[in-house]
Amino acid sequence: LILSNRGEYLVALGRYDEAIAAFRGALARWEPQLGPEHPFLAHPLTGLGSAHLAAGRAAEALPPLERALRLREAREPDANMVAETRFALAKALWSAGTERARARRLAEQARDTYLRDRALASSATEVSTWLREHEPK
């Protein structure tokens, strides 16, 4: 957990390569213990994808985010966690220039999930703003 949290802090500080290393370290430790399908792996996978995206490497963000979403949609009971990964994947797909219609659908699903929880109003606003700024052309 410490490595994954460290990765999140490093992303916030703009230290993307260090964050990527932390998320990979978390995966290397957890996956042998938990197995490849454990939903807890979605935490460092989402972080890894988000770090790649923040570093301007959208194509590299896609595989970990796709895997994280598959794990979360299959086994994550917290809809807000699923929404977090959906929105991260939406941004990566859009930035990579692929599957833009899917990117918008994922973002809309994330927004709709966030709208159900008043405590996540700022997340809903962030996704809504992204959707307005990423209209199909």
Provide a descriptive summary of the structure in words.
The chain has 137 residues and is mainly alpha-helical. It is built from seven helices and no strands.
Helix content: over 70%
Report the sheet with the most strands, covering strand number, pairing sense and barrel closure: none
Helices and strands, in order, run as: HHHHHHH
Structural class of the helix and strand makeup? mainly alpha
Shape: globular
In the predicted model, the low-confidence regions spanning at least 5 consecutive residues are: none
Question: What is the strand content?
Answer: under 5%
Distance, first to last CA: 41 Å
Radius of gyration: 14 Å
Number of strands: 0
With helices defined by DSSP (H or I, 4 residues minimum), what is the helix count?
7
Average per-residue pLDDT, rounded, comes to 93
Topology of this protein?
Elements: H1 2-12, H2 16-34, H3 42-54, H4 58-75, H5 79-96, H6 100-115, H7 121-133
Summarize the structure.
With 137 residues, this protein is mainly α.
Task: Fill in the keyword field for this structure.
7 helices, mainly alpha, 79% helix, 137 residues, single chain
